[in-house]
Fold:
Amino acid sequence: MKKVYIETMGCQMNKSDTERMLGMLSNFGYEETKDSKSADLLMINTCSIRQLSEDKAFSLIGTWGKWKKTRPDLKIGFCGCVAQQKANEIFKRAHYVDFVLGTHKIYSLPEIIEKINRGEKVCECEETHKTEDNEASKYNISRVKSINAWIPITEGCNNFCTYCIVPYTRGRERSRLPEIILKEVKDALNSGFKEITLLGQNVDSYGKDFTDRQYRLADLLKEVNAIEGKFRIRFVTSYPTDITDELIKTTVELDKVCEYFHIPMQSGSSEVLKKMNRRYDRETYKKIAQKIRDMVPDVTITSDFIAGFPGETEDQFVETLTAMEEIGLDYSNTAAYSPREKTVAAKWVDKFIDEDTKFERLARLNEQNRKCCLASNKKFVGREMEVLIENFENHKGKNVITGRTRNNKIVHIPSDVDLTGEFVNAKITSCKTWYLVGEIV
Ligand code: SAH
Ligand code: SF4
Ligand code: F3S
Structure:
């Protein structure tokens, strides 16, 4: 067996692709190693959401390029979102790379390996406009051992928010076939996973592109929910205005679907949202969040925000801070705006916010997030909640099991027994900013 090491950056989509590439490579004589120095094949699965992630990728393969000087047989592959975007340019910047593989045809990897072993250089970055469902069904997936299995249901995105590179790196939106998804769900459950997260840039669009059937996210959730056994179902990411009443109702009716929505708002200012090409304003988002809270007991709603979008004024930024509090968001991912090649907003150079202001705003955003998260956690103190245990660890000198509630709150429970993979009922006794503390009842 030869050894392959894959460094994975970016979101769950990339993690899912890595698991698929490892599964495929295992059929072609490669086993995974966690030690990059002992690998025969080194691959990097890159992310281009922000400049920083792209820079990290080039810095890492620079190191690998140096190793190759003394080990000429070493093969190096550059994959993922940066590969998709830059294609052949990668060879100019890193001549020691053997192959560049974009996000559209990861199942051409076996062919690529054959070619590079014959000494060829390969670039496979064509956009395909279809899913790889046929190929996917032929191979195993080498899932990272965990409690939660991430299963892509859509690929790509059609929204073209003006800051975002994803439509360029992942292509147009396409839905994977329900029969393939259901098979992957069953396989994951059979190998012990206890939580299934259906994944897509905008899961509420699932099925819109099917021409041969009427089948949407709510239908898929019903079929996954009908699979026997005790497990949980989640779905991310939701686009505010695409969330239908039927979907909200379905999440309430189906016992395995958890009370959790991830709905990025991006900014609290209606003017900024317009410039971002988001199809809602502050009030609309607020109403949708309120509707979900009214319909789904104990639901948590999390979000993403960008600080320092081109042209954002201090007042508009403050609107983001007030929105987080007013809407009572339970947790938010935050980032400073990073201009991305090809995107519309990257051309508004004269409107760019200087770095100091941007990072000062990001710090205030993070402070507000901490406040919101603590306020949200406090609501659950005194409650009894079901926790799915994910880890057994030593935290500040004490043994604890950690896991998540149905509404995705992290819970720490003192325990000398490792209950990873079990569902326990816990009384929440106190909370910190980022997690709840409980005891088994
Ligand atoms: N499909 C999801 C987001 C995917 S990208 C959605 O519609 O919201 C994940 C997050 O990265 C985004 O929500 C956004 O907050 C952030 N992001 C995307 N492009 C960015 C950029 N150019 N600079 C900073 N943050 C960015
Ligand atoms: Fe990017 Fe917008 Fe698509 Fe999300 S919805 S992936 S932010 S373009
Ligand atoms: Fe994901 Fe980064 Fe690509 S966030 S879709 S890996 S650009």
In short: Residues 49-50, 163-164, 166, 201-202, 237, 239, 264, 266, 304, 306, 335, 337-338, 340 surround S-adenosyl-L-homocysteine (ligand 1) (CB under 6 Å). The chain has three domains: 2-124, 133-378, 384-440.
